[in-house]
Structures are given as structure tokens and as C-alpha cells.
Amino acid sequence: MSGLVVSPFDRQRYVGSVCTVRPATVEVNLPFAPRPGSTHVAGYQLQRGQVGEFVVIEGEEHAVLGRLIETRLPERDRLTVEPTHERDAQPNPVGIVQLLTAVDLETGTSLRGVPVSPRIGQHVFSAHPLVVKQVVEAGTTPEAQRINLARFPHARDTVVSLSPSQLLGRHCAVLGATGGGKSWTLALLVEEIVRLGGKAILFDATGEFQTQVHPGITHVHLGGRKVDQNDPRRFLSFPYWELTESDLFVLLRPSPGVQAPKLKEALRSLKIAQVIQGMAVNGLIRKSGMPRYPFEAACVQHGLALRRPGTYFDIGQLSSQIWEECVYPSGFQAQAANWGAPNPNEQSACATLMSRIESELASPNLECLFAPAGLEPLPGVVEAFLADPAQRVLRISLEFLSFEHNAREVVANAVGRYLLGLARQGRFLANPVVALLDEAHQFLDKSVGDEFSRTDLDAFGLIAKEGRKYSLTCVLATQRPRDIPEDVLSQMGMFIVHRLINERDRNVVEKACGDLDASAATFLPILGQGEAVVVGVSSPMPLPVAINRPQRPPSSRSADYENLWG
Description:
The chain is an alpha/beta fold and 566 residues long. It has 17 helices and 24 strands. It comes from Malikia spinosa.
């Protein structure tokens, strides 16, 4: 037993003996369960028959680790626990233990599954917290390089720490109902990434992580402007030319028929006006009566620049360029190679689109997109963050970015797409990056826009599906797991599940995580604040823990009505 930190078969921790064996569960006699209260052995609490307790079943080569999921009295003993019972009969409770994993007694390593089923009569012991800790923390990563995540609920002095590869290497999902503690968990992960010298980008949907003021954390804001010159906050832009054509269609909402193709042509013309300066007149491509060939040849020559995001154009000229696009496709007779005269029907049809464009360009809520002058561009800030070894976490606050015209969803998706593009270039292979997305249900499994110009918010879903091979992983935090696509949740290698009350949410998590079966899921609705179940491909079993308190908790408290009213 030299491979284990303590003996798993301590006679002082004896619970009972196996009386029934099934493939996945065993029944155990619990002679000490009727005793009131709990005892302590060597400073650790000993429960001896409480539902949720971890137990160890003795074996010759392996110790089988299980969890007590049910206790009951046989029908004949049901009344023996009543104080009015006249006889001195002793109750004989029986417990059902779910078999979780096995531990090699020689090496101390945990095994997937249970190689040898327990036998009737084998002794069962309450699992020492250090044994459970060793099983969960399997690996050679030094303690100083692990993420100090949590403690055992009934042994608060026993820390549960996981390696970054275990917790973040295959993506991670932090799930839980409002008030369960998922924001604190996310704040703790940010602090641990800073301590370990990692790199992470935090998308703060509500601004509650402004309390993270550790050295190495950079705070920036998308949307909004400084109140005055003394405002220390950094407000960024995500320039409109970094958006895809689909993104712009969602924001500008052209109708089908005339408006959509004219908007598409106008965007192409404005890009040509910047690429070939001599072709434009006052920043516009004039088309009425002008030859088509030079423009069409330029479109062929610069086709790649026209199709990809990042090619600059002057969006302030967009409505005027749409007006220029409203011409007949060709002139008559000798003018057949030229564009025709203005088409009044198309001009009339595009009038509402032009008015909408002017209105949105002037909207203060969309300044970070359409009026980037005077604001730092986010791509440049990300590049500086990646290049600076002293910067550990980049917090991008979206609290001032409006939901108007789906701007928040579109911009967050565009930033995610930008990060995935960097990952595909191999930028993160030497220094892995973690993208932490709070309120993930706002940005996943959604299609924005109207019925004629819909686009899918799939950037973070693609990061979950293919980012790992490029050293870009994600942490998704949400209180609505049912709104996260099943194919995205199934990519999560680790789950930190706080209290989940909604049955649909529990079913979704149970399906996405094969190690969280129905018996373990029944504990989710009764978890306390800050408690969670850690389960995943790198964890040999579902583990209930109490998440460590972050040094600087997020500002997620509600208004103090009692003191502010009256």
C-alpha cells in the first residue's frame, strides 16, 4: 500500500460490510448509521452512513471507491427508530453504494472503472479525504503549478487542486443557477491563471469582474465613452471593417429584392474606392453612364481583399454609394458597355435603407463600431496583450455595449472569430490562451437578424470544437445549460456544476457529460452556495467540493433595498 498517502482500510473508519452485489452498486450493512451525530478520527470528521459519503471497499489488489447514495431500513425494522417503540430492538439499516472507480493499492493510481467487483462480506470503510484527494489529483504536476480550486465540504483543510491541463486543457463549463456561485468560480479561475503565469481573455458581459485588479490584469471596455479627461477607463472600438458582410447585413437589415444586392454592391464599390484611389470621385464610385470594364477588372484583381474582413472602406459614404448603385445595368446601343442611367424605382426602394444607415451611423450605442476615431482598436490591444509577457489576463467588458440591433452579440461573435483566426495561424502554440465567456447563453446557439439576413453566432462554438488543437481553449459560464448547443457542451472536458434546479438543465448536463449519471445528478438541486460537483474526462468520478473564495469576489450583489429605501 506504499502508493497511497494513508491506509484506506483504517479500522477506526469502519462503516460496515457488503451484503448485496450488483454490477454498478452494492448494498452495505450500516450498523453505526443510527447513532446520532458524527465522530472524528485523527482530526477528520467521520460520518459513517450519511448519504453522499465516500467509502472504500477493501480488496486484495484494488480498493474500490464508491459513494453512498441511499440509506434505508428493512420493512421489519422500520418502527425501531421511533421513540415510542417499546422493545429494545436495534435497527439494521442498509445503504446503497454506487461504485465509482478503483485504486491500485501498490501504485496509488486510479483506474477507469472497477476491474474486479466487490464480494459479499468485504469490509467497507469511510474514505479518508486524503485518499479521495489523491485519486482526483492523479498526475505528476507539482502542487505549486496546480489550480487551487476547492476544498472538501466535510474536510475544509483538505485542498483539491487540479493541473491546468486537467481543468482547462479540454475546455471547461461552469454551470449553475443564479446565486449558486459560478461568478465566484470564474473569478477564482482568473486569479489562478494570473498566479500560474498563464494567458486568458475574459469576456465580462455585465461588468461584475471589475474587482479583479491584480497586477497583470488589463481592463478594457467595448462600447461607451469616457465621462471626462480624468476617467481612467480604456474604451475600445471594434472597427466596422473587421466585420464580415453577414455581420453588417444583420446590423443594417436590408430587405430582399432590391436593398440587399444594392448594399452588397455598395460595400464592394467602397472597398475598390480605397484600394484604387484614382477610380473614385470624392470617395465614391460613380456608375451612371460610366464604363463597367475598369471596375469589373479591379474587382477580379483584388477579389481576395474584397471578400475578407479587414479591408478598409469609408462607411460614412455608404448611403451615397447605394444611391450610385441604383442605375440600369447597361446603356443603350453604343453605350452598352457602360452602366445605364439612374433607375428611379431602385432609388425609391433603397430610400428606407439609406435612412436606416444614416440613423445607425449616428447612434451613440454603436459608436464603437461605426465611429472608431479616437478609440483604440481592439485587435491592436489584443496583439499588444499577446506580445507582453507581463500581461496575464485581458478583461473585455461588454456592459456598455448595447443589445440594440444585436450589436453585442455580433461584436462578441466577431471578436471570437478574430481569436480563432489567430489560433489557426499558430499564434497560441507557444503560449496557450484561455477564452473565458461569462453569460455564454447570450452568444451561443443563436441566430440574429431578421428572416432575410440571419447569421449564426458560431465563433465560440467553433473554438470549442476545434480550438484545442491550436492551444486555444474556452471556459463557458452560464445559468442556462439548455440554451447551449449539445454539440458544444459535449466538447467540454471538465464541468464545474453548481446548484441546478431546472430539470431540463440537469438532463442536458447529464447527456453532455457521460460521467455524471442520474444518481450523481440528484445531488445538484441541493448543493449549497459555493458548492459544486466537479466531473469530466480528466476526473475519475463526480466530486462534490466547496469552491475556494476568490481574493477579490465579483460585484454581483443586488441592491440593498432595506438600507436604501425609507
